[in-house]
Amino acid sequence: MRLVLLLLLLVLEANCVIDFIVDSFKKYVDQNSDPCDNFYRHVCPLDGSVPNDLLSEFFDQIRNEFDQNSTKRAWDRFSIMDDYKVDASVSAEIPSLYLQLCENGVDTTLFLTQLHSIIGPKQCKEQFCYHFIREDPDCNRGTAQVESIVKDLLGSEDITEFIQTIGLLHSKIVDISAHIDYDVRDGIVESEQYLNEMKKLVVDWIKETSWVVSHGLVNSTISLVEPVRINDNYGADLKDLIEQFILIEIHYTTCKANYENRESAKLFCLAETAATLGNFEVDGSAWSLTDAFIDFPTIDLGFAFFYVAQHTEDAAGKLGFTGAAIGHELSHMLIKGGSSDFLTYFSENSKKCILNQFNSTCQTFMEDSCITFDGQVDDDGADTLGFQLAYSLLETFYGDSLNEIYEPLNVTHKQLFYYSLALSFCQGLPGKIGWRGNDILDEHASADIRVNAMIAPHPGFQEAFHCTDDSRMIRSSLESCIIYGRNAPNVKKHR
């Protein structure tokens, strides 16, 4: 009986895992629109049905549902988690604590010593003014002096960064925990297999690229590819983060205990903890739910990419989503967009081809706003090459069965690859220019432009959806930019 119950629970648990690609396809793809007109909006229509950021909403919901059904974690019960968002004035709360201590006859030596450690020797050098406050029998007069010191020398901005760090630290612990809660080890292994196959493939392409060979750059270019790996060290990173958080919690709660956990001690102890422990970086900051980036030689993939690699039934869906993301990050090593990139040589023709295609897509499918500029070459090129790598793996995996039907969605495996790629970028907002800060353009094109620019010039897209030459997607296509391989252009140095 127990065995039957266990098996039933396992079946129920398995059934609760959602195939993101299948689920999103059924919910959002506009079956009444023409994929050859605007493929991205065919997949992610602006009809109000698609969330502003599909990935964030889907995977936030998965994490939140798991948290609601789980026992509250130790780090969620930390005292500092209840207190770090306290909405009060530093200049009011700290003097209030001193007044309470003084009026209750509590020795204020510890308070004044810690206050000095918070503020430092900006004023009241060698602690003489703090000694004066301690010896003053008039509590109100001493409080006024403390208020003056805090108002003039501390201010809320001194602990703002620390408070933000506490939130980031907790967020990273929760994000990494998702990898363990859902046990996405199989997804990590599959992602690593994709990367290894892509590295082999692109090494062959490098060896066949005439300008790389003619400039004697084969070995140096390959050396940028071979060390690249996927970060799978989430267990060690989680351990380090928790130890860091425990250290902060112990210090903070000890401080509060010294003041009998008074309400007015919260901000004071946050400031004191910040002064003592605040100079640290959040380790494991690479871990997230939906982000992906490369910090050479490591590719950091968010939980979403491992989840899709593990819980998507069809390999085409995995490759269009996780495979293309891995290809993009790997390709950053092989595109030169500026002086800070690793490559010393790059194809001027390839650069022009990439920018021309993205500009054509921009002009054809502009929504709120769109722009193409030289600073986008690195990411636009990584989109282009990364997509080609993922598609090559798709062809190798399926061979002659690539055009067979995937019955749950009644689309071919080839079509599903394009659908999953678009779903990985899916947003229910009009595409527009992005900014980093107030005056720096984002080097990424908007999601709609990125997807359509990647797939429109690729011969497989027109074949997969039987697009006519006069359809908007095909009209926006200029040429398929071959960056590496025997068909790559033989070009001069690009500086």
Explain how this protein is built.
By secondary structure, this protein is mainly α. The protein folds into two domains: 82-160 and 235-277, no CATH class; 184-231 and 286-475, Collagenase (Catalytic Domain), CATH 3.40.390. Helices cover 59% and strands 4% of the residues. The chain contains 23 helices and seven strands. It has helices spanning 2-16, 20-28, 39-43, 54-68, 79-83, 90-103, 109-119, 128-135, 139-153, 157-181, 185-208, 210-214, 218-225, 234-258, 265-277, 303-311, 315-331, 348-365, 377-398, 413-423, 447-455, 459-465, 472-475; strands at 229-230, 292-295, 298-301, 405-406, 411-412, 435-436, 440-441. The strands form three sheets. The chain has a three-stranded mixed beta sheet with strand order 1-3-2. Strands 4-5 form a two-stranded antiparallel sheet. Helix 11 crosses helix 17 (315-331). The protein starts with a helix and ends in a 20-residue tail after the last helix. Residues 1-15 have low confidence and may be disordered.
